[in-house]
Amino acid sequence: MLRCCDIEMLSYKDKELFFLPILYIILSFKQLITMSKRIKANRFGKYVSKKGNLTFKYIVSGDESQLDAYKEAQGLNFREYLNEEDDKDPLNGMPIFFTTRALPKEIELEITTNGNVIVFESDDDAASKVLEEEQLIMAELAKLKAGERFNRNKVSK
Prior knowledge:
The chain is of the alpha+beta class.
């Protein structure tokens, strides 16, 4: 068993081997805690705003403490679903999240330490979006290049 004074005598590599599993456990625990703070939301519609932006609406769901935290974080921006035609609609009173970003049908929201509500994106999601954007850009460049070649051939004849 290592004592505090023994740790100081360990080499850098030994310290790394000693503390790495502890760090992994701490990070895993932190991830579990943040996962429990995530709030689920399901897209249920879209509309064009007064400013002309395509806006997506999501119904937010979670336990009572999550919904209270969401309501507090949204502050004056908090909105609830209300179907005026059907007062027995089960969605009546459910919180709504709005975004102009085109996101999947089901998303997870997080409340930051600053109290902002953000869409949770894993590193894998972010990397795949970058890859998709790069592929779209490359496809557009290929179209432009093909168009230039076609126009050059047309002019030279």
